């Protein structure tokens, strides 16, 4: 437990040192610049998509950036040789970045709506959506040695994870979108501002399905980490 707590403190320090927290604050301020001039009824329509942007920026791109910082600074080799287990290494990243994403989402929502929103849906949607984005972003960054190559490859996973936006907009309401793990969190973002009324089965789906997908993504992340980090480092 002490080892995990120490790793958590170090991860929080690194997120500040590498300016990811600063970038998150700036993104939150930009969301406010967009939302505050709008009439109240328009904010409720637009803000679910702002929350999508929040979990994408902090969830997907920040963890990818963190991986490349560690590759450039050659700290991954030290991680592999340390007693820190993979689940501990990844869980501290997930916890810190999920906390950053949730903080930005709550501050922006309070600033634009006061307390006139559903906090349960907000917290659940941001945490589950960020969790999925973090795992996919982490996995997608592992095979690449340069940020530019990784950026080109992010089009496909981001396109797939963003498909439920089509459902939210009513452009394409195909039930197949329920196979995408971000569908549930995005439905909850609509429910935060009473844009939709979720049936009990939808609430259950929105909570359980992302968790099930996250478990599968974690297993894939562990395999990919072994293949692209441990094996390339030459550590048995």
UniProtKB/TrEMBL annotation:
Q: Which residues cross the membrane?
A: 20-37, 49-69, 89-110, 122-144, 150-169, 199-218
Q: Tell me the InterPro entries matching this sequence.
A: FLQE3_permease
Q: Which Pfam families match?
A: FLQE3_permease
Keyword annotations of the record: Membrane, Transmembrane, Transmembrane helix
> What protein name does the entry list?
Antibiotic-transport integral membrane leucine and valine rich protein ABC transporter
Q: Which organism is it from?
A: Mycolicibacterium vanbaalenii (strain DSM 7251 / JCM 13017 / BCRC 16820 / KCTC 9966 / NRRL B-24157 / PYR-1)
């Amino acid at each position: 437990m002490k080892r995990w707590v120490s790793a958590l403190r170090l991860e929080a320090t690194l997120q500040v040192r590498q300016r990811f927290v600063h970038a998150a604050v700036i993104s939150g301020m930009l969301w406010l610049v967009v939302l505050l001039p709008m009439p109240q009824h328009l904010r409720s329509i637009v803000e679910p998509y702002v929350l999508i942007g929040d979990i994408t920026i902090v969830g997907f791109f920040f963890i990818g950036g963190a991986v490349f910082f560690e590759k450039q600074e050659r700290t991954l080799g030290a991680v592999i040789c340390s007693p820190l287990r993979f689940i501990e290494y990844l869980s501290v990243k997930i916890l810190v970045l999920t906390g950053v994403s949730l903080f930005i989402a709550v501050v922006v929502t309070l600033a634009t709506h006061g307390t006139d929103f559903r906090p349960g849906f907000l917290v659940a949607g941001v945490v589950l959506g960020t969790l999925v984005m973090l795992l996919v972003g982490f996995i997608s960054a592992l095979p690449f040695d340069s940020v530019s190559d990784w950026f080109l490859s992010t089009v496909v996973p981001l396109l797939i994870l963003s498909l439920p936006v089509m459902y939210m907009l009513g452009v394409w309401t195909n039930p197949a979108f329920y196979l995408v793990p971000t569908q549930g969190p995005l439905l909850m973002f609509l429910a935060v501002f009473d844009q939709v009324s979720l049936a009990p089965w939808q609430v259950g789906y929105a909570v359980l399905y992302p968790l099930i997908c996250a478990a599968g993504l974690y297993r894939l992340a562990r395999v990919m980490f072994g293949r692209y980090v441990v094996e390339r480092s030459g550590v048995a």
